[in-house]
Amino acid sequence: MAQLQPGNPIFRLADQGDIDGIIKIHNLNVFTTQSSHEKGFLLMPVTAEIIAQNRAKSMQYFVAARDTEILGFTLVAPLTLTQDYTAPLYWTNPAILEKTREAPERHIFISLVAIHPQFMVQGVGHFLYQSLFSEFSDYYFSAFVVNKPVKNQRSINFHLKQGFTLAATMQREQFLYFKDYESWLFFRI
Fold first, then answer.
1. Which end of the chain has fewer beta carbons closer than 10 Å to its terminal beta carbon, N or C?
2. CA torsion angle 116 121 125 131 (round to 10)
3. Is the dihedral of CA 132, 134, 138, 140 positive or negative?
4. What is the Cα 88 distance to its own chain's centre?
5. How many domains does the chain have?
6. Looking at the domain assignment, is residue 95 inside a domain?
């Protein structure tokens, strides 16, 4: 597949006209709709109502777009690492937790990223992340990646290539419809 050419897509805050494209891309990446976890790994489908709820909670959708076509998107949110949030995590790198507590207002949580299957492995995810890092250059970022019951190796490798470090592990007996669930928390500081 051809790589994205510099300057082809633009990075911008999603607007109301992007909602249908975000829903389509998101739902194409729900792992239950895929024959392989390598093509998509979002845990639950999304609706316009869920997107509206997310936006009402100060979550923001950013898109990579070419003309009117959405190539991919990311959903980000401010996140303060309170004791309630961090207590159930096993910190493999507690120095990161301490560093993030120094400036909690500069923390952006990347809730999800999804690329249209037609544009996967063409640099769209890299473009979205690099654009986020540029747009919010004074911030640090975190993201969870599923590790069990099915390992999302593609996302783990992607985050490591984007400069993220494994910081913590979350384990749950039950999470959504998964038993023995485990997710890894990555940080880029």
1. N
2. -120
3. positive
4. 21
5. 1
6. yes
- Pairing label, strands 140-148, 107-115: parallel
Encode pLDDT of 74-106 as tens digits: 999 987 777 766 777 888 988 888 888 888 889
| CATH of residue 83 | 3.40.630.30
Residue 34: band (very low, low, confident or very high) from pLDDT cuts 50, 70, 90:
very low
Task: Please state, as a whole number, how many other Cβ atoms lie within 10 Å of the Cβ of residue 6.
Answer: 8
Record the tokens describing residue 94, joined without a space. Answer: 């507690």
| Any domain includes 1 | no
Enumerate residues 6+ apart whose C-beta is below 8 A from 14: 22, 60, 61, 62, 63, 73
Q: Residue 143 contacts by C-beta under 8 Å, 6 or more apart in sequence?
A: 109, 110, 111, 113, 159, 164, 185, 186
